[in-house]
Design goal:
two-stranded antiparallel ribbon, 11 helices, Spore Coat Polysaccharide Biosynthesis Protein SpsA, Chain A, alpha/beta, Glyco_trans_2-like, about 375 residues
Length: about 375
């Protein structure tokens, strides 16, 4: 009897200790300052304007959220091709145009905003971003949209900056993209086409603006290519180990969770982003885990990608940190400290599943 009591006491101590560690390692939502809800732009370079709110109706077709920390030297590599593509692509051809589905009232097809979120940079990223915005708008015009620059007072991490940008997005669709320009931006058309398919399948059962979907750009098809093979053996080993670890913890639907090129339907962003917690590199994994739990239709599309020098990722340190943070995410949901925000309507899930089944039959 004494042995049973001792074992129970030890188990209780272990559980309590694990819970305390979980609380200690769990991120805390920052308190935003009023200035972080404003932006500067070429049209208003010195007078801050208020950002949109995700909870409000969309006012443009696409928001591109760009989290940027100390990116003054790489930002142009992403911004110039992005604005050129958004300003010059034809809007009347299926392979390059935004969705042909109906848009909410007041939203003009092809309209956009690029929202650069300076994540507390120390190298003048905000100033450089604003000057670049002026340059690209002079070069390509600002007929369809504009570039906005929002500055966070303190560094939050990639996830924190991305979440802040999405929570202030105006777009009917919302893309987040890494600031380094590693992903070929015109491949946005591939993600849009996939989201078109998802939304078309849901259109008969839900109203316009209530369709769901999250399309993930993927580098999984590049595993055997020179771009990946030329990486260090350690980096490739850690990459494979991390994906094995993800599958063991329950995220196996998406092969490339970390590619910074993800397109959301607005309704899905409204459902998911207020509930996200992770401020660091593991943010993508939490997003996908919560999306799976909520029933948001997920798709993965191969994109062109080139490794760009100057990454802020420390492969060993950040891999260990991401593994720890993923345990923290799982632990918080299992312990009930964090909760899933809700479920996508079952008719949406059914329509998306049927669309995937139809695609599978066509491929065979």
């Amino acid at each position: 009897m004494a042995l049973i009591v001792a074992a129970a006491a030890l188990l209780l101590i272990l559980v309590a200790s694990a819970y305390v560690l979980l609380v200690l390692f769990s991120p805390r939502d920052p308190t935003p300052s009023p200035s972080e809800s404003t932006f500067l732009s070429p049209a208003s370079p010195s007078t801050p304007q208020h950002l949109h709110r995700l909870a409000a109706p969309a006012s443009v077709h696409l928001t591109v959220v760009v989290p940027a920390y100390n990116e003054r030297d790489r930002l142009a590599v992403m911004l110039r091709p992005a604005v050129e593509f958004l300003e010059t692509r034809p809007l009347d051809t299926p392979t390059s145009s935004p969705s042909s589905l109906s848009l909410p009232d007041g939203v003009e097809r092809g309209s956009y905003e690029v929202l650069i979120v300076d994540d507390g940079s120390k190298d003048g990223t905000s100033d450089v971003a604003l000057e670049l915005a002026k340059e690209v708008e002079r070069e390509f015009g600002a007929k369809r949209g504009t570039v906005k620059v929002c500055r966070l007072m303190r560094n939050r991490g990639k996830g924190g900056a991305t979440k802040h940008g999405v929570l202030h997005a105006s777009g009917h669709r919302i893309l987040f993209v890494d600031a380094d320009g590693a992903t070929h931006f015109p491949d946005l058309a591939l993600l849009e086409a996939e989201l078109d398919t998802l939304e078309a399948a849901q259109a008969p059962v839900v109203a316009s603006g209530a369709t769901h979907g999250l399309v993930v750009g993927s580098r999984a098809h590049l595993v055997a290519t020179e771009a990946v093979v030329k990486r260090s053996a350690l980096r490739n080993l850690l990459m494979r180990s991390f994906h094995l670890y993800l599958s063991l913890l329950g995220l196996s639907t998406i092969r490339d969770t970390q590619c910074g090129f993800k397109l959301h339907a607005r309704a899905s962003a409204q459902l998911l982003y207020p509930a996200l917690h992770s401020p660091g590199w593991i943010f993508d994994c939490e997003l996908l885990l919560v999306a799976e739990r909520c029933g948001v239709p997920l798709r993965e599309v191969g994109v062109r990608w080139t490794e760009v020098p100057g990454s802020k990722l420390d492969v060993v340190r950040d891999s260990v940190r991401m593994a720890r943070d993923l345990v923290v995410i799982r632990g918080n949901y299992l312990a009930g400290r964090w909760t899933t925000p809700g479920r996508v309507p079952p008719e949406v899930v059914k329509a998306a599943s049927e669309a995937r089944a139809t695609e599978g039959r066509k491929e065979r």
